[in-house]
């Protein structure tokens, strides 16, 4: 069931026919065929609040989150292993994976470096770069990013779901922030229980209205299914339960 935003505070359910590629995800078998790790201590500690959505910042913020997800999916480490989450990629590979132009990709990398979320080492006479994802201080904490099978040796590999979100619109950035937040909070089954728009707003620095729009966006793209629950943190504030879909 999808949601259409009418005005602040009001959600009305409606039935729609999802796009063909999205409809393929919504069948009974949603078990992921692969999973990767994303360091998520910084997410749980409120780090998504630093990814700003004002026009001067939204592009680099969206690019940074797309880079994080792309590197996580291409990482050489085993899902359950102790190795750092790192991937050796050329500039062209990362551009193709995440669907970013070179200037926006560079801006996203600078933001991640400034936030202490990525370490970059040039290898092979600078032709390829090893991207290592880092985290907030403390014990390792990882989100499980489910995904369809990947041919990591393909030079022109694209992650189609990352291409769906541009670096031009704050709405796309907010959807990416919500997806990363849900991944950080999800259990092994990819579900998140009783999360309200107020919770999302507090953890991501977006308004509750923008949080509802992000829920609608992920639902429309087939990346997270949301349903209202009877659990209410505050009278009049409805919580949602989410099921995260694998990236493709």
Structure description:
With 248 residues, this protein is an alpha+beta fold. The chain has one domain (33-244). Helices cover 35% and strands 23% of the residues. The chain has a three-stranded antiparallel β-sheet. The longest helix has 17 residues, at 58-74.
Annotation field: number of helices:
9
What is the helix fraction of residues, given as a range?
25-40%
Beta-strand residue fraction:
15-25%
Q: Please write the string of helix (H) and strand (E) elements.
A: EEHEHHEHHEEEHHEHHEE
Summarize model confidence as the mean pLDDT: 83
Largest sheet at a glance?
A: 3 strands, antiparallel
**Which structural class is indicated by helix and strand composition?**
alpha+beta
Query: Which of globular, elongated, flat, extended, rod-shaped describes the shape?
Result: globular
Secondary structure tally: strands? 10
Number of domains: 1
Can you list the strand order of the major beta sheet?
4-6-5
Low-pLDDT residue spans: 1-32
First-to-last CA distance:
21 Å
Radius of gyration from the alpha-carbon trace, in angstroms: 17 Å
Q: Which descriptors apply to this entry?
A:
248 residues; alpha+beta; 3-stranded antiparallel beta sheet; 9 helices; 10 strands; WH_DNA-bd_sf; Helix-turn-helix domain-containing protein
Write the layout of secondary structure elements.
Blueprint: E1 2-7, E2 10-14, H1 20-23, E3 34-39, H2 41-44, H3 58-74, E4 86-90, H4 91-98, H5 102-114, E5 118-123, E6 128-133, E7 142-147, H6 160-163, H7 170-185, E8 191-196, H8 197-204, H9 208-220, E9 224-228, E10 239-244
Antiparallel strand pairs: 1-2, 3-7, 4-6, 5-6, 8-10, 9-10
